[in-house]
Amino acid sequence: MMLSKSCIYGIQAAIFVTSQGKGEYVSISRIAAELNISFHFLTKVLQQLTQSGIMVSYRGPKGGVTLGRQAKTITLYDLIAAIDGTDIFTECMLGLPGCGEAEPCPAHEHWTDVRVRFAGVAKKVTLLSLGAKASELNVRLAQEFKKTSVTEKP
Question: From the CA atom positions of the chain, what is the Rg in Å?
């Protein structure tokens, strides 16, 4: 997995908030329940998005999170940068310092192409388009967990 679990959860939560389409605050407990994410873990991830200005949080009975800017101005690149940073778009796949044209690693020429294309896509894909797709297609955002009954045996 190229992106951290925190980053994936942050992207899923941002898409979920966007797909609600009302511009209202969405409770973190609702997001956590809908996406099968630990409430406490999700809270820490959303703090990163709030600190970067992508989201705004509000405490209280009608609190939660909402987007800090218009969804059409927030890109996948912005979300990744806010949580994981931009190293994925610039660093060596093998983590070797100084990897480049002068001293390439074995995967350099292949990874450079992938990295450049991924950055290009991430900068073009907006949260608005992801949220619209999630709403109109009713696509899943979370991993579904199989619940076993008490009578089932392993």
Answer: 18
A 10 A CB-CB count for 53 gives 13
Read off the pLDDT of residues 8-53 as tens digits, 9 standing for 90 and up. 999 999 999 998 877 789 999 999 998 999 999 999 999 999 999 9
Residue 55 corresponds to which tokens in the numbers above? 């989201």
Please answer whether residues 57 and 50 qualify as being in contact, where contact means their C-beta atoms are separated by less than 8 angstroms.
Answer: yes
pLDDT one-digit tens code per residue, 93-117: 888 988 888 899 998 988 899 999 9
Q: What is the pTM of this model?
A: 0.84
| 5/8 Cα distance (integer angstroms) | 5
E-state strands within the chain:
55-58, 64-67
Q: What is the 3-state secondary structure (H, E, C) of 66-106?
A: EECCCHHHCEHHHHHHHHCCCHHHCCCCCCCCCCCCCCCCC
